[in-house]
Every structure is written in C-alpha cells, then in structure tokens.
Design brief:
Layout lengths: L3 E5 L6 H8 L5 E3 L2 E3 L13 E3 L2 H9 L3 E6 L5 E5 H8 L4 E5 L2 H10 L3 E7 L2 H10 L5 H17 L5 E4 L5 H15 L3
Parallel strand pairs: 1-7, 1-8, 2-7, 3-4, 8-9
Antiparallel strand pairs: 3-6, 5-6
Length: 186
C-alpha cells in the first residue's frame, strides 16, 4: 500500500504552492476532494475539486462514500471519498492529499499509510496572506483566523511541522521533498 502524504495548513499556508513545487521532483497523483462550496472562476470541476450541492454531499455521507469529511469554517462541506483514497493507495507515484486539520486527523485515525505534513505559518501571517489575496471582508478574515486555531491546537498530532516563511517557498518545498524521500526510502 502506497504512503499518502497529507499536506495541510491554515489559509495562506501555501499548500497548493508547495504541491505545485513538488512536481519538479516527483510524479504526483493527487486526491481530488469533494466539496459543497461554489466553484471559483479559476477552478475546474473534476480537477481542483468535485463540486456538488450540499444535498448531494449529505447523500454521499449517508451512503458512506467518504472516508473522512468535515464542515469547515464557513459551513461548507469537504470530504475524501473511499474511491479517491483507494486510487491513491494503489498509485505508483507520490500520493498527495490536501485537506484541513479535521480531515487529516480523521484519516490518520482510520488509515495506516498516512503521513501528515503540517505547513505552519504564524497567525498574523494568515491574516496578512488573506488580505494579499484580496479577501477584504473583515468577517471572512476573522473566521479564517479563528478556524486556523484548529491547526495550532492539534500540531502535536501531525507527523511533521514545517514553517513556510515569507519568501522561502523553495526551501519549504525542499524540506517536504526530503520528508517524502525519507518516508518512501528513496
């Protein structure tokens, strides 16, 4: 069974940037998360996420299609299906799964092949990066900063913690590469 590397961190931690950077070092297969939130303009269905309605999501919960799922800070549902995770477990490539701390902790409890890599950023950096992304609603930013506390409160439960400092993305990527190589005995 292939190891699955969960990349997790609060809003603005750089998970997508790190995952994109890993492609320079490895062939990657990535789990596609299912969500009830609306698709953003730059996102593609069946590529970035599986976008479904809340009703469809709840039906999948009832029919036990998710290995893990969580309601996030804005009331939107996110989950990893058994089918996606089974596909990753059989992959010949490096298996990456980007999920929040709730999902990461559930997955770690349920699966023996999970390695959680936590991308840490300071709470003030969460706020700064959200503002840089154009998220100007104080209510939205406050909710995301509050939700970020879940990572800080659970950081002792993650396998690895890497601080993704401002301007040091490549250094962060190389640290994640080293972890993947070590865990996979490359």
């Amino acid at each position: 069974m292939n190891k699955i590397f969960i990349i997790t961190g609060p809003a603005g931690a750089g998970e997508d940037s790190v995952i994109e950077g890993l492609k320079k070092y490895f062939k990657i297969d990535r789990a596609i998360t299912t969500t009830s939130r609306k698709k953003r303009l730059d996102e593609k269905n069946n590529v970035d996420y599986y976008f479904i309605t809340e009703k469809e999501f709840r039906k999948k919960i009832t029919s036990n299609e998710f290995i893990e799922w969580a309601e996030e800070d804005r009331g939107k549902l996110y989950g990893g299906t058994h089918a996606e995770i089974d596909k990753l477990s059989r992959s010949k490539n490096v298996a990456i799964w980007k999920i929040d701390y709730k999902g990461a902790l559930q997955a770690k409890e349920l699966l023996s092949n999970i390695i959680i890599i936590y991308l840490y950023i300071l709470p003030k950096v969460v706020e700064k990066r959200l503002k840089q992304r154009g998220q100007t609603s104080e209510e939205f930013i406050k909710a995301r900063v509050e939700y970020a506390k879940g990572w800080y409160d659970n950081e002792d439960k993650f396998d690895y913690k890497i601080e993704n400092k401002e301007g040091e993305l490549e250094k962060t990527i190389k640290k994640v590469v080293a972890i993947i190589k070590k865990e996979n005995n490359f």
